[in-house]
């Protein structure tokens, strides 16, 4: 794979794996003896959910939700669900698995959308959290890493559908220096 736009590696494969172990330990404690529906936000969180779910000690169902952003004339953007959940979450414990939270707008929409389906509880677990651009303060119960506001790729995160399969997370450089 051509990696000429890959900049500094900010999280190594080893660092990600170690933090997932820590998150899983905390989640195992918090959800002990409960059945939980893990909701992966496609496509970016697929690797994270796979690695995290294998370390959970309680019964889980895996489900997927895909959201697309459409920019309108004033560039405010519209969020649409393009792939909905397979399972009903009514009366269930739901743990949203996300790779990155930046402004909070998408996740605010997501909490309203899923909340209207009457779950018992909704929690959010994100691998990456950027607080600099936060427009809304969301209840994020589990955070892997706080990072600076850089465009990053790898471990599920992409640039034009490329670089998702990198085992680490790195800065993406639009115009790399020679």
> Radius of gyration from the CA trace?
16 Å
Strand arrangement across the biggest beta sheet? 4-3-2-5-6-7
Beta strand %: 25-35%
Mean pLDDT across all amino acids: 89
Counting DSSP E segments of at least 2 residues, the number of strands comes to 9
- Assembly type of the shown chains? single chain
Major sheet summary line = 6 strands, mixed
CATH topology: Rossmann fold
Protein name: Hypoxanthine phosphoribosyltransferase
EC number: 2.4.2.8
GO molecular function: hypoxanthine phosphoribosyltransferase activity; magnesium ion binding; nucleotide binding
InterPro entries: HGPRT, Hxn_phspho_trans, PRTase-like, PRTase_dom
How would you sum up this structure, described in words?
The protein has helices at residues 13-30, 46-53, 105-115, and strands spanning 6-11, 36-42, 60-70, 78-83, 93-101, 121-129, 142-146, 152-153, 169-172. By secondary structure, it is α/β, with parallel strands linked by helices. The chain has a single domain, classed as 3-Layer(aba) Sandwich (Rossmann fold). The strands form two sheets. Strands 4-3-2-5-6-7 form a six-stranded mixed sheet. A three-stranded antiparallel sheet has the order 1-9-8, with helices on one face. A hairpin with a 7-residue loop joins strand 3 and strand 4 (78-83). Helix 1 (13-30) crosses helix 2 (46-53). The relative contact order is 0.22. The model has no long low-confidence stretch (mean pLDDT 89).
Summarize the structure.
It is found in: Cytoplasm. The protein is of the alpha/beta class. Helix content is 21%, strand content 33%.
């Amino acid at each position: 794979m051509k990696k000429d736009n890959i900049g500094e590696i900010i999280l190594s494969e080893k660092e990600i794996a170690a933090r997932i172990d820590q998150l899983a330990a905390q989640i195992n404690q918090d959800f002990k003896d409960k059945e939980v529906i893990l909701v992966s936000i496609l496509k970016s969180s697929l690797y994270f959910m796979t690695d995290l779910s294998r370390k959970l000690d309680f019964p889980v169902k895996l489900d997927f939700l895909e959201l697309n952003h459409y920019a309108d004339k004033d560039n405010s953007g519209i969020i649409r669900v393009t792939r909905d959940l397979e399972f009903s979450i009514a009366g269930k414990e739901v743990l949203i698995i996300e790779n990155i939270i930046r402004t909070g707008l998408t996740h605010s929409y997501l909490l309203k959308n899923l909340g209207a389906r009457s779950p018992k509880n909704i929690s959010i677990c994100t691998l990456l959290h950027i607080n600099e651009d936060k427009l809304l303060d969301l209840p994020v119960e589990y955070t892997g890493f706080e990072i600076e506001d850089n465009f990053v790729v790898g471990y599920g995160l992409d640039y034009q559908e490329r670089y998702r399969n990198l085992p680490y997370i790195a800065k993406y450089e639009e115009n790399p220096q020679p």
